[in-house]
Design a protein that fits this description.
Belongs to the UDP-glucose/GDP-mannose dehydrogenase family. One of its GO terms (biological process) is polysaccharide biosynthetic process. It catalyses: UDP-alpha-D-glucose + 2 NAD(+) + H2O = UDP-alpha-D-glucuronate + 2 NADH + 3 H(+). It holds the Pfam family UDPG_MGDP_dh_C. This protein is of the alpha/beta class. The chain has 3 domains: about 200 residues, 3-Layer(aba) Sandwich (Rossmann fold), CATH 3.40.50.720; about 80 residues, N-(1-d-carboxylethyl)-l-norvaline Dehydrogenase, domain 2 (Orthogonal Bundle), CATH 1.10.1040.10; about 130 residues, NAD(P)-binding Rossmann-like Domain (Rossmann fold), CATH 3.40.50. It contains 17 helices and 14 strands. The strands form 3 sheets. A 6-stranded parallel sheet has the order 3-2-1-4-5-6, sandwiched between helices. It has a 6-stranded parallel sheet with strand order 11-10-9-12-13-14. α16 links the parallel β12 and β13. α1 packs across α3, α9 packs parallel to α12 and α11 packs antiparallel against α12. The N and C termini lie far apart (about 55 Å). The model has no long low-confidence stretch (mean pLDDT about 95). Bound molecules: uridine-5'-diphosphate-xylopyranose.
Length: about 425
């Protein structure tokens, strides 16, 4: 199969590299010449475990290449994937589709022969209809089918998620297009991944429903955690107790500082808007969005309370800034609200993150950065675990205790147990454990 991937960001690059690894002939396109130049020189612009090697291997095998020229990449392709960004629109929170539609217009002008155009970007219900309309309007003669094929990749585990998916969702009513998509994903039959072929609108909505459900699950356990703290219960044991029921399932029941990242905040908001526009509001998701926003801000208040009610003039050391481990992504990270809340309350904030400091710098004003966890804790009045990087799972508490002015540990990811930490003379607070 010849595949053109339009957009070489996170989704495009991971998907393109994985398709090439399946043996397909893949060309990744991006408008940003600096990005393409870097990729051509073997430099990967994002941090994703295993991606460097995967891209390198497939480029060497001649199956993967990069270009800024859309037209030659699209001409002769069997499948053209649209994997451009769909950021939240300023003001109303609706997904901004201008990049998707611009890509559709350009693709239309370049198609030769039967081509399946696939929206991989997360797009609101009905976007596939509009993409098809744009293509048919721009190139009435083009032989084309427009398919929805949402991605379910987690950052930090994207390659594994792509190669061993729980399911593949393909939205098309066109049998010929379904056959092309089957061929594209054929290598995954070996992994027995279920392929769900359904209507295009159903596929589009499935993506939003999946993310909104997961965000709801997290928000549910976060609120149960708050209640645990008040009634003397332990949220981790509650999560285990309910998660062992197969109807509930144990994943995504880890209480924390609120979800962040490139998908959940944006997709929940977009679903809320779509539902309102269609007169079928999803109030449970509206509440999830509001609760999660408030929670991120509440985390700064939790740290302040752990410091005895005031952080004015105190030094607070943050371990982890990215929205989750194994990524350098700072989008909607809880750390953004935590830093703002602490600074507003007069704290001096110092931070360390294994991969995220470069991305954090332009977003977080007035904080200083350390080169490791111990350096970060030097002279601090409180240490806060914000992101559960592996590097923070076996901290030397005696060393930290000796370095710090006050021994306060706020563990927003429940990495440690109270006993372990208090043994070293720390005052310990975590999430949902009374
Ligand atoms: C998510 C979806 O999992 C993925 O299928 C979709 O395609 C894109 O969005 P991602 O944002 O990369 O992936 O990360 P994920 O691991 O799902 O975590 C999202 C957020 O939820 C993080 O902030 C994480 O810390 C938080 N989270 C997750 C919890 O607080 N508790 C949990 O139990 C799980």
């Amino acid at each position: 199969m010849r595949i053109a991937m339009i957009g070489s960001g996170y989704v495009g690059l991971v998907s393109g590299a994985c398709f090439a690894d399946f043996g397909h002939d893949v060309i990744c396109v991006d408008k940003d010449p600096a990005k393409i130049e870097a990729l051509q020189a073997g430099r990967i612009p994002i941090f994703e475990p295993g991606l460097d090697a995967l891209v390198g291997d497939n480029v060497r095998q001649g199956r993967l290449s990069f270009t800024t020229e859309l037209a030659p990449a699209v001409a002769g392709a069997d499948a053209v994937f649209i994997a451009v960004g769909t950021p939240s629109r300023r003001g109303d929170g609706f997904a901004d589709l201008s990049f998707v539609y611009a890509a559709a217009r350009e693709i239309a002008g370049a198609i030769t022969g039967y081509t399946v155009v696939v929206t991989k970007s997360t797009v609101p219900v009905g976007t596939g209809d509009e993409v098809e309309h744009i293509i048919r309007e721009t190139a009435p003669e083009a032989e084309v089918a427009v398919v929805s094929n949402p991605e379910f990749l987690r950052e930090g585990a994207a390659i594994d998620d792509f190669k061993r998916p729980d399911r593949i969702v393909i939205g098309t009513e066109d049998a010929r297009a379904a056959a092309v998509m089957n061929e594209v994903y054929r290598p995954l039959y070996l992994n027995a991944a279920p392929i769900l072929v359904t209507g295009r609108r159903t596929a589009e909505l499935t993506k939003y429903a999946a993310n909104a459900f997961l965000a709801t699950k997290i928000t549910f356990i976060n609120e149960i955690a708050d209640l645990c703290e008040q009634v003397g219960a332990n949220v981790q044991e509650v999560a285990r107790g309910i998660g062992l029921d197969n109807r509930i399932g144990k994943k995504f029941l880890h209480a924390g500082p609120g979800y962040g990242g490139s998908c959940f905040p944006k997709d929940t908001l977009a679903l809320v808007k779509t539902a309102q526009d269609h007169g079928a509001p999803i109030r449970i998701v509206e509440t999830v969005v509001a609760v999660n926003d408030q929670r991120k801000r509440a985390m700064a208040r939790k740290v302040i309370a752990a410091c005895g009610g005031s952080v004015r003039g105190k030094t607070v050391a943050l371990l982890g800034l990215t929205f989750k481990p194994n990524t350098d992504d700072m989008r909607d990270a809880p750390s953004l609200s935590i830093v703002a809340g602490l600074r507003d309350a007069g704290a001096i904030v110092r931070a360390y993150d294994p991969e995220g400091m470069e991305q954090a710098r332009p977003l977080l004003e007035g904080i200083t950065y350390a080169e490791d966890a111990y350096h970060c804790a030097e002279g601090a009045d409180a240490l806060v675990i914000v992101t559960e990087w592996n590097a923070f799972r076996a901290l030397d508490f005696a060393r930290l205790r000796a370095a710090m002015t006050e021994a306060v540990l706020v563990d927003l990811r429940n990495v440690y147990s109270r006993n372990t930490v208090e043994k070293h003379g720390f005052r310990y607070s975590s999430i949902g454990i009374a």
